[in-house]
Amino acid sequence: MAMALSRERTVVLARIWASALTYAAVVAVAVAAGAIGVGIATGGGFVRGKRLVFFAGWILIGYATVKLWPRSMADLDGPTMSARGTRFERIAWAIPPVRWIRRPAPTVRLRVGTKVFIAGIMTLGISLLMELAFGI
Questions:
Q1: Fewer Cβ in 10 A, N or C end of the chain?
Q2: CA 65 to CA 23: how far, in whole Å?
Q3: Residue 28's closest CA among 130, 135, 114, 121?
Q4: CB-based contacts of 36: which residues, under 8 Å, 6+ apart?
Q5: Is the model's pLDDT at 88 over the cut of 80?
Q6: Which of these, 30, 22, 41, lies nearest to 95 by C-alpha position?
Q7: Mean per-residue pLDDT for 89-100?
Q8: Which pLDDT tens digit goes with each residue over 1-42?
Q9: In a 10 Å sphere around its CB, with 0-12 CB exposed, 13-18 middle and 19+ buried, how is residue 71 labelled?
């Protein structure tokens, strides 16, 4: 009995993290592509794009911090989430591997602020990759 509960808990955690990491990856790639596009369009090339990716990563982390900050004591009780999720979550849910797995229940999903925070870290990672691996 305990083994079945442990396996079920592991499956639920895997679904939660697959959903969160897919969302964060979609946000990070979209932000990085947009920043690089703006960098190239404004004549600064990939160097300006890398700087914009770096600043966008910090902006995402700041936004996530504000979004996660509790406004009242009632916010500490737990998330009140819609079963449908946000528009951007629905886009991320259409991308594999999340498309192939059952979504976690709204009560156990990570908050959007947490996902945006992870996306900010991924965006900073893209900036670091551009600098170290590609020498930009």
A1: N
A2: 17
A3: 121
A4: 46, 49, 50, 52, 53
A5: no
A6: 22
A7: 79
A8: 566 678 888 888 888 898 889 999 999 999 999 999 999 999
A9: exposed
How many other C-beta atoms are found inside a 10 Å radius of the C-beta of residue 25? 15
Q: Is the dihedral of CA 35, 41, 42, 48 positive or negative?
A: positive
The tokens for 122 are 């991924």
> What is the DSSP secondary-structure string of 14-63?
HHHHHHHHHHHHHHHHHHHHHHHHHHHHTT-HHHHHHHHHHHHHHHHHHH
Distance CA(5)–CA(32), nearest Å, equals 40
Helices 45-68 and 112-132, axial angle in degrees (round to 10): 160
